[in-house]
Amino acid sequence: MAGGGSVGLYAALRLQHRLRRELARGAIEILVVNPEPYMTYQPFLPEAAAGNISPRHVVVPLRRVLKSCRFLPGELTAVDPKARIAEVCSLGSKEAGSPPNRIPYDELVLAPGSVSRTLPVPGLAEHGIGFKTVEEAIGLRNHVLEQLDIASSTRDPDVRDAALTFVFVGGGYAGVEALAELEDMARYACRYYPNIHPRELKWLLVEASNRILPEVGLSMGRYALRELRARNIDVRLETRLDSCTDRVVALSDGSRHRTRTLVWTAGVKPHPVLASCGLPLDDRGRLRCTPDLRVEGASHEWAAGDAAAVPDLSADDPGPDGRLPLCAPNAQHAVRQARRLADNIVARLNGRPLTDYRHSYRGSVASLGLHKGVARVFGRRLKGYPAWLMHRTYHLSRVPTVNRKARVAAEWTLAGLFKREIVSLGSLEHPRAEFESAAGAAQRPDGPSRPGGS
């Protein structure tokens, strides 16, 4: 199992359950390879950034959940489909500078997920902030609170204006939910900054298409747009980021905005390791898959989620080229594909026919901040508090393990009873900074003498 994200975790969980007797006898082994020892439940990242959920409850520990599987911390680097060999660079071999481990396999699940899709925009690499990992979410929370500290303490109007201007690029789930939750948090935090009024905060959402949140439908997307603009959030549709050099954001509509915060959520792309797997890829770099989730032309390689181009059998009409459209790269497809993939592997081992993946659309939900949201569930449209409650209920039901569900529910309950925490812990990102500074000063000729020295 190459990858411990949504596909890797849910597929391994299913295999662990379906093959428990074989695992107990030692007849088979399930190996899960992932760089981190946890799976990040990404729909909760905006709430973690806003402080509604502790970061440790946004992640699922793989070793604890996959008790019957063997976990190897490392990264897949290459695959030889003919020899059925996977090359894995483990953390130990990376530290020692050793060559990758060559691991033989009977069945290989390729689920490395995706990485942020960036564009060659001048200044983006220097000033952009991503929003795909829990580290980025917590880093962004600390950054936003730090900007309030800077604005409240500076006398320079240009620095203050830049600190209070927050630009988000990308109007999908990640961008809209992150902006909405952080705007909620920052507006609340302003009550503890007497010299900052919430109206001074400038929030700008940049989207290249003519709508936001396309996943929830046209009417709910329009409602979300009205809701954001009613909160004094500047939403620029059909607009692109041209540059962000010297902390000045230049947009395609000709406007320029001085800012210290630029959040990039404009899409993802398949993990680049897929290019070294020797398997067929589509024009977007995803593995071409059959409806039963096997890689095209391969017998023992499987894929699902963001890394896989899987035909959507539930689509009504084929595209202009006569082919069925592909399943969208979202969490709903990833979780359901993972279960179907695991069932097909079990069927393959038992000599039974495989079953195609077919998705039954149930709906989409999105949060727009505390007590606000939009949803389209089983054809019904919800907005405001009911949609927000549906958002929380749905995602709570999707979190793996009862233990994790209980912890998240308890945190939500406590958050409703007590005030928000608005403390910035930016030092967590550089825990050795003070030690290094002190050690460097002690080693300089003009630095302070060491303790005990004459």
How does the SSE layout of this entry go?
Blueprint: H1 6-18, H2 20-25, E1 31-34, E2 38-40, H3 45-50, E3 59-61, H4 62-65, E4 70-80, E5 85-90, H5 91-96, E6 101-104, E7 108-110, E8 114-116, H6 124-127, E9 128-129, H7 134-153, H8 157-163, E10 165-169, H9 173-189, E11 202-206, H10 218-230, E12 233-236, E13 241-243, E14 248-251, E15 256-258, E16 261-264, E17 268-270, E18 287-288, E19 301-303, E20 308-309, H11 331-349, E21 363-367, E22 373-377, E23 380-383, H12 385-398, H13 402-417, H14 433-443
Parallel strand pairs: 1-4, 7-19, 9-16, 10-11, 10-16, 11-12, 18-20
Antiparallel strand pairs: 2-3, 4-5, 5-6, 8-17, 13-14, 14-15, 21-22, 22-23
Features:
single chain; 454 residues; alpha/beta; five-stranded parallel sheet; four-stranded mixed sheet; 23 strands; disordered C terminus
Description of the molecule:
By secondary structure, the protein is α/β, with parallel strands linked by helices. It is built from 14 helices and 23 strands. A 5-stranded parallel β-sheet has the order 9-16-10-11-12. A 4-stranded mixed β-sheet has the order 1-4-5-6. A 3-stranded antiparallel β-sheet has the order 13-14-15. β22 and β23 form a beta hairpin. The chain is globular, with a radius of gyration of 24 Å.
